[in-house]
Inverse folding.
């Protein structure tokens, strides 16, 4: 392998090492989030609804409005009252 190949291999190894460290951090953070949901559940909150709210808060306002309009349209089409 030429020097260029060795340099590329070292560069690749560095990227892989960074990704592995980030994956470890991601797993730790995921565990922390799970603990927060468990704590909230212990205080009487519904984690499923909380996750839904977190997803909604991440959405762009226009996307949220469009999704809500479609939910109302589909709910009305299947006779679901009060949505």
């Amino acid at each position: 392998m030429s020097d260029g190949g060795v340099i590329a291999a070292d560069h690749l190894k560095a990227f892989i090492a960074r990704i592995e460290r980030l994956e470890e951090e991601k797993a730790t953070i995921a565990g922390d989030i799970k603990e927060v949901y468990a704590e909230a559940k212990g205080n009487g909150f519904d984690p499923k609804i909380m996750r839904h709210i977190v997803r909604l808060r991440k959405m762009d306002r226009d996307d949220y409005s469009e999704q809500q309009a479609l939910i109302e349209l589909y709910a009305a089409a299947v006779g679901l009252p009060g949505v």
The chain has a mean pLDDT of 93. The longest helix spans residues 3-42. DSSP finds three helices and no strands in the chain.
